[in-house]
Specification:
The protein has helices at residues 2-36, 39-57, 59-70, 76-92, 96-115, 127-136, 140-174, 180-187, 192-225, 254-257, 262-271, 278-283, 317-335, 350-361, 367-373, 378-415, 421-433, 450-454, 460-480, 487-498, 506-514, 521-528; strands at residues 119-120, 123-124, 297-300, 307-310. By secondary structure, the chain is mostly helical. The protein folds into 2 domains: 1-93; 195-276 and 315-528, Orthogonal Bundle (Neurolysin, domain 3), CATH 1.10.1370.30. Helix 5 (96-115) packs antiparallel against helix 7, helix 7 crosses helix 8 and helix 16 packs across helix 22. The termini are far apart.
């Protein structure tokens, strides 16, 4: 038994010696590609992506790990490293030719997504420009043009996205999985039956609150655009995918942010709970420029403290919330116990880091944040607080119903990438979002969503993150009265959620932090609590 342990420790040590510098080089190459869009940077990122894939495609190491896994070591840290490494190799089992083809197509798609700018009224526009039109314009014709422009990228990449799904499925089926969707969930320590049971419960518990919310939103939008509610179409909503509720102009915090330094507001938010972020901001790339990725993300470069954020900040509410969200990911990475082995210096699960990010992003609409960070007067906070809280719940409700579209679509997408995906997409949007599909539209609108091509089988983590964020919020509110300006809340998050890293599996971490398993009830109760005002 001692010999077996020694052999496993040697295997892990040898793996880390190769993986650690490779992961750092890959992260830096990805950063360069996303921040510059330069073809040579895209090429280098793709080359290193292929190297990472090849590392985890090695069948000999995979079989060794599978053998060790049959009699796991008694040392919990060693056993946990074994499990994490085994799962990574499991998902990575692919033929070398498949790896080369995957990385080539992903590189092409990523370059297209990063660099493409559709035309609206004859001029090229960014995602931020399209968002501004859908947020501010009342001309339905212009809104439709902007909405359709946001979907153009889908038509340019759809065939290649289907190719990616076929290639991903090849490796999964060789391992005995029905498709890549099932393999990816296994690699994330998620059981498909358990996951969709949880999602079905959530869908059922949010169905009636969402129906009432949608009816109320549609009456409001119909008045704004001067059309009957039944004539509303997707471009009448303030987000191209209806990921969030259309904002109420009276509740938009953007005017309060004019002339403000969003970085300073973020610094005050995190320092108020005992978390230092100056080092993270100093490494980050936070403002728009040509060629740069228009999305936002956080990157842990080396698991030793080089943590940075990409964003495209403007002094508006959406970007303030996004900055706090991405910094939630960043502080998670920063405050993981550095004494853990390299393999465990990661969040317990993707959705647990999403939960912290979601929890922090929600703070923008809380009375504490408005008063203590933004500096609004007591009178102004009193005027806004209840309606802002309702809008925040509404946003989360709308987002989760949108996310249900994504998870059901991806499951069906990998089951059969060659089916009629264009109609499936709108069937699901009608079912979960109650959106009317545009008459006569036949286009791969599904392919315009970045995650389907380049962050596959990820979206369920946003939903689970919303559920865990609500459980955490419930515990923090009961114990400390809130998050903003409460160092004890920050200390709780560090001790109970961040520091354990991947030492605990996600089920153990949720129980460790909240005292019970993950459940939809706190979230469903929160979004149902006064979401719709009396009319």
């Amino acid at each position: 038994m001692q010999d077996t342990r020694s052999e496993l420790e040697t295997l892990i040590r040898q793996h880390v010696a190769v993986a650690e510098p490779l992961f750092k080089a890959h992260a830096l190459a990805q950063w360069e590609a996303h921040t510059t869009g330069r073809p040579e940077a895209q090429e280098e990122a793709a080359r290193l992506s292929a190297e990472v894939m090849r590392l985890y495609a090695q069948p000999e190491t995979f079989h060794q790990l599978a053998n060790f896994r049959r009699t796991p070591p008694s040392d919990p840290l060693l056993a946990r490293q074994l499990e994490r490494l085994y799962l990574r190799y499991l998902v990575g089992q692919r033929d070398p030719q498949v790896i080369d083809r995957l990385t080539q197509i992903e590189k092409e798609v990523r370059a297209e997504v990063v660099n493409y700018r559709p035309l609206v009224q004859g001029r090229p526009v960014s995602d931020n420009d399209i968002s501004a039109i859908l947020r501010e314009e009342t001309d339905s014709t212009l809104r439709r043009e902007a909405w359709e422009a946001s979907k153009e990228i889908g038509g340019r990449i759809a065939d290649r996205v289907r190719q990616l799904a076929r290639l991903r499925n090849e490796g999964a089926r060789r391992l005995g999985f029905p498709d890549y969707y099932h393999l990816a969930l296994a690699g994330q320590e998620l059981d498909p039956g358990e996951l969709f049971d949880l999602l079905d419960r959530l869908a059922k518990q949010t169905e009636e609150p969402f129906r009432r919310a949608k009816e109320w939103l549609d009456r409001r939008l119909a008045r704004r655009f001067g059309v009957p509610p039944h004539q509303l179409r997707p471009w009448h909503y303030s987000d191209p995918f209806f990921q969030q509720a259309p904002s109420d102009p009276d509740l938009d915090l953007s005017p309060y942010l004019e002339g403000k330094d969003l970085e300073e507001l973020a610094r005050r938010t995190y320092e108020g709970i005992g978390m230092e972020i100056d080092d993270i901001l100093a490494r980050s790339d936070l403002y728009e420029r040509p060629g740069k990725d228009q999305h936002a993300f956080c990157m842990d470069v080396d698991r030793k403290g080089d943590i940075r954020i990409l964003a495209n900040l403007r002094p508006i509410e959406r970007w303030m919330a996004t900055l706090l969200h991405e910094l939630g990911h960043a502080v998670y990475d920063k405050y993981i116990d550095r004494g853990l082995p390299w393999l465990l210096r990661r969040p317990a699960h993707t959705f647990t880091t999403e939960a912290v990010a979601i929890l922090m992003g929600r703070q923008v609409r809380t009375p504490r944040w408005l008063r203590e960070v933004l500096g609004l007067s007591e009178e102004e906070v009193a005027r806004l607080a209840d309606r802002l809280a309702r809008q925040e719940r509404l946003n989360s409700l709308v987002f989760v119903r949108w996310a249900l579209v994504m998870v059901h679509f991806e499951r069906a997408f990998y089951a059969d990438p060659d089916q009629d995906l264009d109609n499936l997409w709108w069937d699901l949007k009608e079912r979960f979002q109650l959106l009317a599909r545009p008459e006569g539209r036949h286009a791969p609108d599904w392919a315009a969503k970045y995650h389907i091509a380049l962050a596959p089988v990820y979206y369920h983590n946003y939903i689970l993150g919303e559920l865990f964020a609500s459980q955490l919020d419930q515990v923090i509110t009961e114990r400390f009265g809130g998050v903003v300006g409460v160092p004890e809340a920050g200390a709780f998050l560090i001790e109970r959620v961040l520091a354990p890293g991947a030492r605990l599996d996600w089920r153990s971490l949720v129980e460790h932090a909240t005292g019970r398993p993950l459940t939809p009830e706190p979230f469903a109760a929160w979004v149902s609590d006064g979401t719709i005002p009396s009319i």
